[in-house]
Amino acid sequence: MEALDLARWQFAITTIFHFFFVPLTLGLSIFIALLETKYVRSGDEMFKKMAKFWGTIFIINFAMGVVTGIVQEFQFGMNWSEYSRFMGDIFGAPLAIEALLAFYLESTFIGVWLFGWDKISKKAHLVSAWLVALASNISALWILIANSFMQHPVGYAIQGGRATMQDFFALITNPNVVYQFPHVLTAGIALSGFVVMGLSAWHLLRKHELSFFRTSFRWAATYALIGSVLVGVIGHFQGQFLVVHQPLKMAAAEALWETEQPAGFSIIAWSDDAAQRNVFDVKIPGVLSFLSYNNFTSKVEGIKDLQAQAVKQYGKGNYVPPVMLNFWAFRIMVGAGTLMVLLAFLAVLWRNQIEKKTGFLRAMLWAPVLPYLAGTFGWVMAETGRWPWIVYGLQKIEDAISPNVPAWNVALSLVLLGVLYGVLSIIAFQLAVKYGTGEVKSEAVAG
């Protein structure tokens, strides 16, 4: 394999491993702040214990997220220096703000929250919990502002072969962020709800601390349902935005080679990319038109016509992203999300008799896999769906790689980082299971 292929694999693997931790941090930080709010308002000590118990999972996850995230920025200099040169003026600003503002704020108040129990007033401690939640999600916002420029460049000018920032306000109000950030936030809410339900189900099946974990399950069920419904609704509007601004991504996600009016939604399909056609597909007539434009008769452009338009705009080249990868990534994401809504709805419906639903509780032990699948394949589609661009319409992937880097150097770091990230993920999972299935303590969060 060439250095370019290896560098792409390295960034994909390390980013996917890193993103195992990010959404749980986002959603769990808010969940814990809500539990502590209930404790401060009601004086019920059980909610204090709940905030501490689930706070342990948050701390483990946050620490792993920091460790796995550090390497991401180093790769821009090691493997993607031409990207850094081209994009540094724009990409560096939100990353610097994220590190200097949001991350330091988050880290500081995590310390206050962790060590401040019974040392500062209840209300002051509650403020620290909400500041952790706020800073965690603001941190994600700045990262997504940077990524949104790669998806939908705004507020820039090309000067001296580089993209330079012309309008900071345009950067932070990028219309892609309007959809992407709420989508990621609600995905984190759904994920954290399912993780809490899964661990609570383990305890309920074993009759441990029934009042504690019954309440945790109920709160998490409502939380997960809200997140699962919202992430789907926001995702629908994000898809309509992409139909206009990244039409080849959405056409690939539907394996739609020919322009159709009305356009049918493919439930299942298999594509022959060389022949530019589907070997077979099963469609529901008109549904893709409705999903794209809110009516059943609109025209939806196919890959062939969109490729021809891209050639006219950008010059000769293949602008079609990998069709089957995006087609199945989209369906895994949507399928997992649909199951999440169903399971969360049943959890809310049966919340008052949940201990009797032993079969459902056993299913919920495995349910946290669904939001992880949805999130992972959602990002696979988001990033591979804009190929061949690394910055949409401005810089291609092959133009972003560091020059004169031997392939064996990238291969070595790929293996080392892959093993390291794999080991760290196993450790994080084992720690989460250890503390998540442990006994409830009244003292401060276990270190």
Description:
The protein is mainly alpha-helical. The chain has one domain (3-436). The protein has 15 helices and six strands. It has helices at 3-19, 22-42, 45-78, 81-115, 122-151, 168-172, 175-205, 210-245, 247-253, 287-293, 303-314, 323-349, 358-366, 369-384, 407-436; strands at 156-159, 162-165, 265-272, 277-284, 389-391, 395-396. Strands 1-2 form a two-stranded antiparallel sheet. Strands 3-4 form a two-stranded antiparallel sheet. Strands 5-6 form a two-stranded antiparallel sheet. α7 (175-205) crosses α13 and α7 runs antiparallel to α14. The relative contact order is 0.14. Residues 443-447 have low confidence and may be disordered.
Q: What is the percentage of strand-forming residues?
A: 5-15%
Radius of gyration computed on alpha carbons: 23 Å
Through-space gap between termini = 44 Å
What's the arrangement of strands in the largest beta sheet?
1-2
Total domains, how many?
A: 1
Largest sheet: 2 strands, antiparallel
Order of helices and strands: HHHHHEEHHHHEEHHHHHEEH
Label the structural class: mainly alpha
Fraction of residues in H or I helices: over 70%
Form type? globular
The overall pLDDT average reads 92
* Poorly predicted sequence stretches spanning 5 or more consecutive residues: 443-447
DSSP summary: helix tally? 15
Question: How many beta-strand segments?
Answer: 6
Brief account:
The chain has 15 helices and six strands.
